[in-house]
Amino acid sequence: MFPTLAVPVIAAPMAGGPSTPELVAAVNEAGGLGFLAAGYITVEQLAERITRTAELTAKPFGVNLFVPGTRPTADISSYVRRVTAYADKIGATPGEPRWDDDNYAAKLELVLALRVPVVSFTFGLPEADDVRRLKAAGSTVVVTVTTPGEARQAQHVGADVVCVQGSDAGGHRGTFTDDGISPGGGELYGTLAAIRLVKSAVDLPVIATGGLVTGADVAAVLAAGAVAAQLGTAFLGCPEAGTAAAQREALAEGSRRTALTRAFSGRPARGLVNRFLVEQGPHAPAAYPNVHHLTKPVRATGEVEVMSLWAGTTYPLAPSAPAAEVVARIAAELTEAITVLAERFGRG
Fold first, then answer.
1. 260 in helix, strand or coil?
2. Helix axes 323-347, 215-223, angle to 10 degrees
3. Average pLDDT, stretch 272-290?
4. Other C-beta atoms within 10 Å of 320: how many?
5. Is 187:197 a contact under the CB 8 Å cutoff?
6. CA angle at residue 135 from 176 to 104, to 5 degrees?
7. How far is the C-alpha of 236 from the C-alpha of 109, rounded, in Å?
């Protein structure tokens, strides 16, 4: 089952650069659990990162896989023209708006062969047979869910744990199906509400994620019934993270609001508001990963106003410190929160 952690904190898998073997190892050695992100990299790169992580820490760690969806049917021609015109203005060339499955099958076989201790899935459900194979290889299987209905589906295929994602979370929404209409691709639940609803629907351990930065946040989700808290934004400022320089600066500056958008990838995701999000977001179709490939060269320019600056709603509270210090601070704040509540309860 899920590993016992000295500190009930998980470093979320953050595709696109932030999740590194060094970050995973640092969180592990501090008493938490680190995750590698398999999204957007080759099978060979993933193998190298798993090997490197195992060299840096002997403790269990996780790997997250993106479950491929069906090919989108939305007409994206007008959005291609918009992004092309925008790219021309900044001297960039848009990418090919293609669909792919992120080499899902090969990555699944890799984590099976390497017997990765914890394997999580985002954007959908693994096949029940693949869950059985992972369990037979000794892996704990986690499925990211956003609603009670998704949690029931995860339980049906045999998941060991569900990671319940609240609407405050930074980065992509883990919804199985994007309705293409609402900002979040479906109904939005705050993290605490999502935990309560999911726990009423399934009999599985729950990891909570979404807007969690402090030890008090962790205490709140543990009190709501979670076994651990998964934090992403809290680790973006760590020197071990592969966060882009422009994003680090925007996070540290702390004045931008966040919003859900399909502008960068064609799938709802929460990030800091910039010019590209404002101008292109209202026109972006539900077409992942086609839009991701279309905008990738534009985002790669490193200009803060065109980058996907993924972050949760509470990002101004996130520190810029080594990962071990972040975990230690959260552990101390968690202990303090529990002590304060115990004292108040005792006085009652």
1. strand
2. 60
3. 98
4. 13
5. no
6. 45
7. 29
Tokens standing for residue 315? 């990002």
Of the candidates 238, 243, 234, 246, which has an alpha carbon nearest to the alpha carbon of residue 318? 234
Mean pLDDT, residues 309-331 taken together? 97
Token readout for 15 is 């595709």
Whose CA is closest to 237, among 318, 182, 342? 318
Tokens (6 digits) for 171: 């980065």
Judged by DSSP in three states, 208 sits in strand
Q: Which are the contacts of 290, defined by CB distance < 8 A and separation ≥ 6? A: 72, 76, 97, 98, 99, 266
CB 274 within 8 A of CB 304: yes
What is the pLDDT averaged over residues 98-120?
98
The confidence score (pLDDT) of residue 75 equals 94
Torsion of CA 128, 129, 132, 133, to 10 degrees: -140
Residue listed under structure tokens 């954007």: 123
Q: What is the overall mean pLDDT for the chain?
A: 97
Tokens matching residue 303: 């200009």
The 10s digit of each residue's pLDDT in 181-217 is: 999 999 999 999 999 999 999 999 999 999 999 999 9
**Residue found by looking up tokens 């977001």 in the block:** 281
Structure tokens at 342: 């115990």
pLDDT of residue 346: 79
Retrieve residue 152's tokens: 């029931």
Q: Is 264's pLDDT higher than 70? A: yes
Query: Who contacts 282 (Cβ-Cβ below 8 Å, separation ≥6)?
Result: none
pLDDT surpassing 70 at residue 348 = no
> How many residues can be counted in the chain?
348
Q: Which amino acid is at 276?
A: F
By percentage, how much of the chain surpasses pLDDT 70?
A: 99
